[in-house]
Model the fold of this input.
Amino acid sequence: MAMANPQAQEVITCDLCVKPTQQFCNNCQLSLCVDCVSKHVDKLKYQPHDIVHFKDRKVDFPECEFHTNQRCEVHCQQCDVPVCLKCIVGPHNGHKVKDMPEIFNDKKKKLEKETKEIESTIIPQYKKKNEETESKLSIIMAEFDELDKEKENHRISWHQEVDTIFNHLGSLMKSIKENLLAALNSHQSKIKNQIPDMTQTVQQNKEILKSNNVSAVTNYKSKLQEYRNMPTDIDVKLPSLKTNTVQGRELNLEFGEYKASLTQTTLSSLTEEVFYLSLQKLLEQAKSITTIPTGVIPLGHVACVGVDEAWVSGGDKTIRRVDIHGSVRDTVTTTCEDWPNDITVTRQGELVYSDGNNRTVNIVRHGRTETLITTPQGWHPDKLCCTKSGDILVSMLTSGRSQYKIVRYQGHTVKQEIDRDDDGEPIYKGGRYTLFVVENNNGDICVSDCKADTVVVVDKSGRVRFRYDGTPARRKKSFYPAHIVTDSMSQIIVADFNNACLHILDQNGQFLRCVDNCGLDNPHGLSVDSEGRLWVGLGLSGEVKVIQYMK
Done:
């Protein structure tokens, strides 16, 4: 009897491992081997399980939504919905269908794949993004804290500007008052002094008339015309105080010829650069307004005080305050063995100077000198800058001039040190020559590194923003930057010792122009007064030139 060859059958494996299936959980619709039954029950121990032999399994088909008591044993591929037999011969007639167990297994595998991707890939990505966002939040909050501090500093500064306007107005009113009162008092004195003289003349004339003395009458000299010419009245006109206020936009004040205004400008679509240009522009040619002989030879440093005065220092211990006419208004004898390494002025107008030999930075208050800072052993203070926040930037060097750094002091406390870049390399070359330092309006710290023949600008955190080597100016001799200053437009102005000129850059290091037509031989000392004029010291002559370079 011939035997038929048995048909090869597909082996159904356990859903939890690769062993052949022997059991089935009707509740969970899982195929299980004998070894995995207990694992499955333990893993989902709070859920009921109906474990049967695989051949006795019950496939859980969903009920049809449209036909009562009908089970959906297949899945319509075209409509992607479970369907019963009545559906197949009805609305889904001719549609391709798959058995529900096959669809179940396909969907389950897809579900497992999606679950694995969400758990192993997407959730970690979200967690990472959440941490990054948390970090951004912290940074933004810290930056807004700094902005708030800066805003409060500007509030103080603006209040000071208003106080300056009204203090100037008060001084002007006082001066006009004193002049008018003096003129009126003088006029009154002339009138008052004539009355006794006229009274005496009247008495004398009456006596002559009574006596009938021929000689007295004929010799009489008339004073009538003199008395008729009464002293001319003084035309007293008080200047009127006019104000014009547009709330939130503009404040205007006039007193005689004195005018002051505060204007709030909304940038709207204007760029910051256009806004700057609308305020002020560089003159086509800078012009020297005056030359002030200081008598300080050699002259080393200049620090403006207000409009028409500046402190100057040079080859001796004394610091002098001179006005625009060359008159010495005040002197300070310093503690220096030779001369001050640098001088500057605080926002309150107090004089500050550095004494390199004694390692001190000193301030002059009410005529008395106080020590503000004593630098660490082996480090000597050199150039100075008082910042808008009230800190002091000090350029320092070691005794052997092998190391240089910029240190920010808040009172006696070191707040920041700037000497190396992100790669740990020295930012400044230093060496034999010094570092001149100034802060710009945006918080940048601008330094003339004479040894490197370069201006180095770092941001408020100490990271290098740019370097300027003088090349765009196309001068004949090599660039030798020395004294450096910034103005209200955030422009950087640096004295070029070799080429007897000034380089003007914008706050991003873009070269704008040179000031080379004002006879700036041997420029030592550079400062800007409150009217935006440059005061440039000339080292060899001891003169200071006041230069108008902005419209």
User: Anything to note?
Assistant: DSSP finds six helices and 33 strands in the chain. Residues 1-8, 265-279 have pLDDT under 50 and may be disordered. Residues 100-211 form the longest helix (112 residues).
